[in-house]
């Protein structure tokens, strides 16, 4: 068990020093800031910024600790979804009260254009949360087979209610163990920034292995280029990776996951009124023109496949 409120550091940041940037391997990086957190996973840990690819990362935070943090602490300390949302039965029958459902539908609008198969597809949502995207996948695709990676025990109740096959535990090992299932669609929405920078390359390699040859990967992350936007620095966990457009592209290029269209700057779903009122209009107006609404640019959206 992780003690969610402890001052005991697991690894002191002073005893841990990265030698190169985890994305571009440059040694041209510096300390950006330090986390302010009582949680043992983040306590006394520093964030570094690479000045070659504008990637920033929390140093010395291992994947194993993060897996347990999401299982035991995330709902209590960060998001409190178990208090904020209705029971699974009500949650899926009241779409207006779902968590970021507009974002889920935006993503599915896009991937549907690129997925060659429209029925019986294997969909894997990594960091599936309450299952909103998987729920809508059943409306955008005919009889999809749903898989979810999730460690939050509250989220797992919702995913099981949907009938998704739930994968949890060690991020790399548990996903690797599903290797016999290849996926037509892998969704990684606001998950990558929660992966340990020390495991991210292995994670992307696993994504590639899990993807069908003509499968589609969709990734959305916060646009946290801290060189360009220093005001986006935050001392509060739990994000451990902070992407610029360049660093996101370099990471996936290294694993031969090819972009199907340039990385897009998206609205941040937390702008509630914009999301609810303006975004649906933009989707309707622009989607048939193959142009996506670009506004505040707080998120980066990437759609990739194995083949060009
Ligand atoms: Zn770098």
Residue fraction in strands: 15-25%
Number of strands: 12
Distance between the termini: 45 Å
Helix content: 25-40%
Q: So how many helices?
A: 11
SSE ordering: EEEHHHHHEHEHEHEHEEHEEHE
Q: State the fourth-level CATH superfamily.
A: Vaccinia Virus protein VP39
- Average pLDDT value? 85
Main sheet specs: 8 strands, mixed
What is the name of the CATH architecture?
Answer: 3-Layer(aba) Sandwich
Q: From the 3D structure, determine the CATH topology.
A: Rossmann fold
Explain how this protein is built.
With 308 residues, the protein is of the alpha/beta class. The chain has a single domain (13-305), classed as Rossmann fold. The chain contains eleven helices and twelve strands. The protein has helices at 63-72, 74-79, 81-84, 88-91, 101-114, 132-140, 153-161, 171-176, 200-210, 245-253, 272-287; strands at residues 29-34, 46-50, 56-58, 122-126, 145-149, 165-167, 183-189, 211-222, 241-242, 258-259, 264-266, 299-305. Strands 4, 5, 6, 7, 8, 10, 11 and 12 form an eight-stranded mixed β-sheet that branches. Helix 5 crosses helix 6. The longest helix is centred in the C-terminal third of the chain and has 16 residues, at 272-287. The protein is globular. The N and C termini lie far apart (45 Å). Mean pLDDT is 85; it is low at 5-15 and 285-296. The chain binds zinc ion. Zinc ion binds at residues 21, 23-24, 26, 50, 52-53, 55.
Keywords:
single chain; 308 residues; Rossmann fold
Concise overview:
This protein has 308 residues and is of the alpha/beta class. Helices cover 32% and strands 19% of the residues. The chain contains eleven helices and twelve strands.
């Amino acid at each position: 068990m992780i003690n969610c409120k402890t001052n005991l550091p697991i690894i002191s940041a002073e005893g841990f020093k990265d030698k190169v940037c985890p994305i571009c391997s440059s040694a041209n990086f510096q300390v950006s800031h330090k986390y302010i957190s009582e949680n043992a996973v983040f306590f006394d840990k520093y964030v570094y910024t690479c000045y070659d690819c504008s990637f920033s990362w929390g140093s010395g935070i291992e994947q194993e600790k993060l897996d347990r943090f999401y299982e035991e602490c995330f709902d209590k300390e960060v998001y409190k979804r178990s208090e904020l949302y209705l029971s699974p039965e009500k949650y899926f029958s009241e779409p207006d009260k779902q968590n970021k459902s507009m974002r889920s539908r935006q993503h599915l609008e896009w991937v549907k254009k690129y997925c060659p198969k429209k029925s019986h597809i294997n969909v894997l949502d990594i960091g599936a949360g309450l299952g909103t995207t998987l729920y809508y996948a059943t409306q955008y695709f005919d009889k999809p087979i749903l898989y979810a990676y999730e460690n939050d025990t509250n989220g797992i109740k919702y995913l099981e209610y949907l009938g998704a096959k739930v994968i949890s535990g060690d991020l790399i090992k548990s996903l690797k163990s599903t290797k016999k299932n290849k996926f037509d669609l892998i969704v990684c929405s606001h998950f990558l920034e929660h992966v340990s920078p020390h495991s991210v390359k292995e994670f992307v390699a696993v994504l590639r292995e899990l993807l069908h040859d003509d499968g589609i990967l969709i990734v959305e992350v916060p646009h946290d280029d801290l060189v360009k936007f220093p005001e986006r620095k935050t001392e509060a966990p739990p994000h451990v990776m902070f992407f610029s457009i360049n660093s996101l592209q370099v990471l996936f290029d290294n694993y031969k996951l090819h972009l199907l269209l340039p990385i897009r700057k998206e609205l941040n779903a937390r702008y509630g009124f914009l999301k609810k009122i303006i975004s649906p209009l933009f989707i309707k107006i622009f989607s048939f023109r193959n142009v996506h609404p670009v506004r505040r640019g707080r998120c980066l959206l990437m759609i990739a496949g194995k083949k060009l």
